[in-house]
Write a structure and sequence with these properties.
Elements lengths: L1 H21 L7 E2 L13 E2 L1 H7 L47 H4 L3 H19 L9 H4 L2
Antiparallel strand pairs: 1-2
Length: 142
């Protein structure tokens, strides 16, 4: 009986500490290095903390479910990597992409990332011309 009185409160405290940590931890910078294919340009260093804290983006503005709908996440929630759904490695463009729908192009990992990031940055620049939201290759792939 006395063991239960010691172990049970300890388990509760451990569980609460784990939840608190999981709910507040996220990476400041994420290296967008997908190891399933060779990158032709330098790896993008995505400033996750700035996008969340400074720019006030909600998780669902980048993260979405299988139907493309925004998801609601808490900081520290495990999130599937983009390659899980956008499973074709690399990027398709030019003659190879001719005739493919936008959805078919987004099956390629790099196409999905470029569409999401550049699309958001271009939209932001239309709204606020003073924002420095990069849309060229060299500004992100530094």
């Amino acid at each position: 009986m006395s063991v239960i009185r010691i172990i049970f409160p300890a388990l509760i405290l451990f569980s609460l500490a784990t939840l608190l940590y999981a709910g507040t931890n996220f990476q400041k910078i994420i290296l967008m290095n997908e190891p399933s294919y060779k990158h032709k340009k330098k790896i993008v260093q995505f400033t996750h903390k700035n996008h969340v804290s400074t720019y006030q983006l909600k998780c669902g503005e980048c993260h979405h479910d299988k139907t493309g709908q925004p998801v609601v996440l808490k900081h520290g929630t495990n999130v599937d990597r983009c390659i899980t759904c956008h499973s074709k490695p690399g990027e398709i463009k030019g003659k190879k992409a001719k005739g493919l729908s936008s959805a078919e192009k987004r099956e390629y990992h790099a196409n999905a990332l470029h569409d999401k990031c550049r699309g958001c940055h271009k939209a932001l620049k239309k709204i606020d011309k003073t924002r420095k939201a990069p849309t060229s290759c060299s500004k992100c792939h530094q």
